[in-house]
Design brief:
Number of helices: 9
Strand content: 15-25%
Largest sheet: 6 strands, mixed
Radius of gyration: 24 Å
Order of helices and strands: HEHEHEEEEEHHEHEHEEHH
Structural class: alpha/beta
Length: about 260
Amino acid sequence: MNKFTENGNKMSRVSLRQLIFVFFFTTVSSISSAKEILIGAGNFEPFFMQKDQAGIFVDLIREVFKELPQYQLKFRFMGNYRLVIELEAGRLDAAANIMQASDLKNGVISNPMFEFTDVVITLKRNNFVINHFSDLQNKSLDTFQGAKSFLGKEFTKMAEANPKYKEHAKVDSTMGKLILGRADAIIIDLYMASHYLKTLFKGKVKEEELQIHYLFPVPTAATHMGFMDPKLRDEFNAALKKTRASGAYQAVYQKYKGRF
C-alpha cells in the first residue's frame, strides 16, 4: 500500500468519525432543544391504552407530530370528562377527542382528527337481515350510553319504540351479551369490537362468526384535538394534512382493524 492510499484511508476514517460525531451532536441537540408538550388522553381502549402508551388515537397523534420535530410529546391519561377541565385550567397544552368547538370556552380545536365507525353486529348463525333501522325494531338491541341522542333522529325514533333497546355505560358488556346470546344485535365501534374479541374473549370467538351491518355513515363521527394556543393548533392542522396525504394516518387505523 503506497503512502497516498494509506493517507487516504486515514482521512476517510477521520471523516467518517467526524460525520458520526456531527450527526450524533445534531440529533442530541435537536432532542434537547425540543419543546415538551403535555397532551391529555382518554382512557377507553383501543383508542387510548395507558399501559402501553399507545392506542389508535395516541398513535395518530404521534404520527402527526413526526411532522413537527420541534416538539416532544408527553401523555397524561385521564377520564374523558376531565380533558376539557384540565386543558382550560392550563395543566395541559392539548387534549385529544374534543367533540366540538363549543366544548371549549377559551381554547380552539383542530380539523377533524379522530374517527369513529359505529356498526350493527349480529351473530352470523342467526341469519338476520338488517338493512334499515326498522329491521331492528323488534330485536333485543344493546349499545353504548348516549347512543339514542348521538346516532340521529331516525335511530332515536326506532330506539324509543323498541322495548328491548338498552344502553350500557361499559361498552365491553355489549359484546358479552351478543356472544352469550342475550342480545340479538349490538351497536359498537368496529375497532372496539375487534379489540374486545382479542382481549376479553382471547380468540375463543372468531371475527368470522360475526356479521357486520353498516347502517351508519363511515366514519360515523369525527372528533378533534383541543389546544389553548392557536399557533400550535395551526401547526398541527398543517402536519395533519401531510400525515393524511402520506398514508401514515390511514395505516394506523389499518393496524388496529383486524379482519372485519
